[in-house]
Design brief:
Shape: elongated
CATH superfamily of the largest domain: Winged helix-like DNA-binding domain superfamily/Winged helix DNA-binding domain
Organism: Nonomuraea composti
Order of helices and strands: HHHHHHH
Number of strands: 0
Keywords: DNA-binding, Transcription, Transcription regulation
Protein name: Helix-turn-helix transcriptional regulator
Largest sheet: none
Distance between the termini: 73 Å
CATH architecture of the largest domain: Orthogonal Bundle
Number of domains: 2
Radius of gyration: 23 Å
Length: 122
Amino acid sequence: MRGGRRARRERRDPGRRTPEHRASGHSSPERHTSKRHTSRGLASGRRGSGWAARRGVAALTGAELRVVRLVAQGLANRETAAALFLSPHTVDTHLRHACAKLGVNSRVELTRQVLAHEPPAP
């Protein structure tokens, strides 16, 4: 077998576009699609019920929702972390992801969205 860099790359990834193919302007060649990907709908570009398909508070994961609920009650990140037995960094990560999913930029906006979705507990 020949051992050049291009030959190794082609053996490793036969569907990869070559420089000549890129220059021709044609779309990329078909890649091998396994049955596993086809049965999950991934080969056709469809996704499952990921967060992008859902909107609003329904897009949040369970962990993000638990963190957001405590923050909406007025707890600081450290207090939320202690209440949920998490690190403050994990709480911050969950908050950043929740804010991105909800399209908000502040804790106040986040609290408004959560309270609009579910009224405060008595």
